[in-house]
């Protein structure tokens, strides 16, 4: 099954896998379809081969392949057992394992019966849901994979940053393309805003028609395989209406970064005539909408962010926000447009914070809102995201919620045009693109 393909580096994730190599937990790589999980397994296999593990110790299986189409849990167990090299540790790599019914029984048996190190991927959070968790509770480590960051996007597309001296004595960043042609950093960032971070786009190039074809394929697979098909396999028939599903996806994609509830989604769809009948009685129940939204969260196409009351120090149960895993998919769904840039920038910052290992919430302070409260072990900071900080009104609007927070944690505003001031009474004003590449 080996291929001569060269896999581009995803060090952020590969280093996490390497850190858990030869430890007991099952390594589970999750994330939206086509974000690079299979390539990550290939990179890990490459790492093992370079470090003295022999090819015969490695078992690779991709359950999207026809070869394993009808494999059962018993079939999987016997298949691997027949490949075991006596006296050697085996390395098992199983891609899209959720397609094997009762797969967790086989994986648990490998853990008990074999000397092995196990790596699996899945495109659906259902993989790690309650039934599975009871099987391997505490015995698995999840590595959450996302589409390309802006830095990774530049590497994948052959852009390199060089710092040069500017005439004024400082430094300035210049970007050079694959053939050495110079670009403005902002131009490359605009390409990221347009095409998004799906790794496959690097294979087709920054061409709108080819990119849209690729994104259409990813979108269809997520919807059909990970949502509609999976519902059948689970024997749950909650999500049966592809039209309603698409309407909810379009609604969430259009409203990234806005507070929404299941009720507001249902009502809007009816009010805007997006659902047949138009009458209030035909509105999907909040329960139905919630089930559809839940399926979208499980397939990693959307992520939900909860609100946190900064003064009361508690999470609020109402009105979260949703962000889309990839801006390219949003552009494919809604068309390319230049409005609502603010929310798109927020979307990018949210996922960058996740990549950097932060837990992220929306901050509520009195009646004001702070875009993000980012926290991990012993670190916390507040972030506002805006397109520009050059107008007096905008500055007042963006700084005012941060000024209401009286603790000593760092407060920053990220914008594409920070103006000349780098700080306002201790609140830092940073260039968003510089922050992404820092």
Q: How would you describe this structure in keywords?
A:
single chain, 5-stranded parallel sheet, Rossmann fold, 9-stranded mixed sheet, about 450 residues, alpha/beta
How does the SSE layout of this entry go?
Layout: H1 11-19, E1 26-30, H2 37-50, E2 58-62, H3 73-81, E3 90-95, H4 103-113, E4 116-122, H5 130-135, E5 140-144, H6 150-156, E6 160-165, E7 171-176, E8 182-183, H7 185-195, H8 201-204, H9 208-234, H10 242-254, E9 259-260, H11 262-271, H12 286-298, E10 302-309, E11 314-324, H13 327-334, H14 341-355, E12 359-365, E13 368-376, E14 379-388, H15 392-404, E15 410-417, E16 423-424, E17 427-431, H16 432-437
Parallel strand pairs: 1-4, 1-5, 2-3, 3-4, 10-12, 14-15, 15-17
Antiparallel strand pairs: 6-7, 7-8, 9-11, 10-11, 12-13, 13-14, 16-17
Helix pairs in contact: 1-2, 3-4, 7-13, 11-12
The H-level CATH homologous superfamily of the largest domain, spelled out, is P-loop containing nucleotide triphosphate hydrolases
What is the helix fraction of residues, given as a range? 40-55%
Main pleated sheet: 9 strands, mixed
CATH topology title of the largest domain: Rossmann fold
Query: What average pLDDT do the residues reach?
Result: 90
CATH class of the largest domain: Alpha Beta
Structural class estimated from helices and strands: alpha/beta
**Got a strand count?**
17
CATH architecture of the largest domain: 3-Layer(aba) Sandwich
Low-confidence stretches: none
Count of alpha/pi helices: 16
Outline: globular
How large is the share of residues in beta strands? 15-25%
The side-by-side strand order for the widest beta sheet comes to 9-11-10-12-13-14-15-17-16
Gap between N and C termini, in Å? 38 Å
Q: Roughly how many Å is the radius of gyration?
A: 23 Å
